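Same chain as my last thread, 291 residues:
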Amino acid sequence: MTSDHRTSEYESPFQDTAVIAWLEAAGIDTSLPSPDRVYDAYLGGSHNTAIDRAFVDKVERILPSIKPLARSNRSFLRRAVQEAAASGITQFLDIGSGAPTVGNVHEIALKANPSAHVVYVDSNTIAVQTSQIRLEEQRVTDRVAMIQEDLRDPDGILDHPRTRALIDFDKPVCLLMVALLHFIGDEDKPAELIAHYRSRLAPGSKLALSHIASDEAPQEQKDQVAAFVDAYRNTTTRLHTRTKAEMERLFEGWELEEPGIVHPPDWRPDNPIDNDMSAYYLGWCGVGRKV
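reply #2:
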């Protein structure tokens, strides 16, 4: 490590070549990049393959600010979890969590409160299996679980045996859908899905959302985001953008917490290590509370 190397919250806490070898030996379809592994590569993590890194190289030429955007989004996740924990919430449901990457929710939550419980949810088999291995290695499976379900099946998630074992829905829950809904098209009625989740949660629960966007971006970045969205046509999952007004509709029925729906760097900033603001206009985020 050179003397001018900067460590940060975004740096992978492990370089798990054993897990990567296991992934490749498990027969991953390497003909297409996987969005969860691509996101890990954006963050500088180690749970990705050569095909994912090649895709990152391609889209970084299309949207040069994609890595700063991923870091900004991950920093929002950290702050949202910390704020929820500070408000007394000890239960976290992270939907669309992907494979283990940088700054995992359970690490943040357990640091704030060792008695916290976390349930991760993802529909990707490899992401689920990898996460289960990581959680077993960390010996936290009494407080943290990973289940394979889809956002579009709320009751399948909320009534899953592992969810019910770890989360008491008579008490507040922090529901996380961070960098997830841009993979959900309007045909899946995301606002109705969120309303269903809200109906199952206790008062005092919180919802944290973040989403790729370009409606306030300079024209050059609008064009870059459009090309970026098009590039995702060649992955296992399509990508969608939403405007601030569309984000507001996703929060209907929730009381938005200050500062409302804002660009990720503006949501209760602390002392960010990464000061690259090139992705400032490329996302929306917010946290709502069930009253």
